[in-house]
Amino acid sequence: QKEVEQNSGPLSVPEGAIASLNCTYSDRGSQSFFWYRQYSGKSPELIMFIYSNGDKEDGRFTAQLNKASQYVSLLIRDSQPSDSATYLCARIAGGTSYGKLTFGQGTILTVHP
Amino acid sequence: GAVVSQHPSWVICKSGTSVKIECRSLDFQATTMFWYRQFPKQSLMLMATSNEGSKATYEQGVEKDKFLINHASLTLSTLTVTSAHPEDSSFYICSARLRFEAFFGQGTRLTVV
Question: What is the pLDDT averaged over residues A26-50?
Answer without folding.
Answer: 90
